[in-house]
Amino acid sequence: MYFLREALRNFGRHRRTNFVAVSVTAIGMLLVSGVALGYVNFRNFTAYWGSSVQVVLYLREDVSPERLEGLQQAVAQAPETASLEFTSKDQALQQFKVRLGEGAHILQGLQTNPLPASLTIKVHDGFRRPELLRQMAERYRLLPEVEEIDYGERWVERFHLVLWGLELGLVGVGTVIGAAVLFIIATTVRLALYARSEEIEIMRLVGATTWFIKVPFLLEGMLQGLLGASLAVGVLYGLFSLLLSWAAPRAVLFIDLSFFQFLPPVATAGIILGGALLGACGSIFSLRQTVA
């Protein structure tokens, strides 16, 4: 209890210095939180988009009903198959006419139906990675009943590439900002140590141990990091809510905003505790150099 009381007293005594430290820490953690928020919502979007990932097997003209039934059973039992839908040649032509709308009259002169029958596979979550989809496509391409396969290969690979880039960017930004926060808090604690050098020397003369002197400064650094990270999360939540309120009436016809969400509780707690940990590390770094 003494150590916490001392830390709070030191924090109030050096209000200006601590205000600067908390403000700069908040700015840094706001950047990290913003990148994390973007990453979380991009993952939500890719999860929604991934739920519609389908592999379409276009069938050859000469597939007999018996072979088609056997193929359907084999594909339906495959581990990557969440659901399977068969589309006949006639159904494919009717769907194509619906998509053309008023332009469907251009098909009136067709003597035969050029569209193939197909099997549409909706893929399980665990099999939506580009390499697994590619392996699945190559396996089905070897079947004699299959003429062609389509699963949007380029789009799948691009989405996963962007996701990987965001993950790498989050780590990079977090590392840079974390180092900056460490330096700021370490500098703040060092200034407080210099301002109280005479008091520290008196404490040593009366027999105070090194850790008895260090702990209040360690708690002060943790408090700086904790307040800065909490302020960053609060500001980010306010900005996020304002942005959604502004975008809701404008985006209703273009995108479903229900996919966008704030940082989950685990991530929010991680950022706040991470700020406190950075504060503690900054204090330890400064104390090792100034208080032996």
- Radius of gyration (Å): 31 Å
Number of domains: 2
Q: SSE order in H/E notation?
A: HHEHEHEHEHHHH
Structural class: alpha+beta
Number of strands: 4
Spans of at least 5 consecutive residues with low confidence: none
Give the strand order, joined by hyphens, for the main sheet: 2-3-1-4
Helix share, percent: 55-70%
Main β-sheet: number of strands, strand sense, barrel status?
Answer: 4 strands, antiparallel
Average pLDDT reading = 77
Identify the overall geometry: elongated
Approximate strand percentage: 5-15%
Distance between the termini: 24 Å
* Number of helices in the DSSP assignment: 9
Written account of the structure:
By secondary structure, the chain is of the alpha+beta class. It has two domains: 2-48 and 157-290, no CATH class; 54-150, Alpha-Beta Plaits (2-Layer Sandwich), CATH 3.30.70. It has nine helices and four strands. The protein has helices at residues 2-13, 15-50, 65-76, 89-100, 130-141, 153-195, 197-205, 210-251, 265-290, and strands spanning 54-59, 81-87, 118-123, 146-150. It has a four-stranded antiparallel beta sheet with strand order 2-3-1-4. Helix 1 (2-13) crosses helix 8 (210-251) and helix 2 (15-50) crosses helix 8. It is elongated and about 100 Å long. It starts with a helix and ends with a helix. The model has no long low-confidence stretch (mean pLDDT 77).
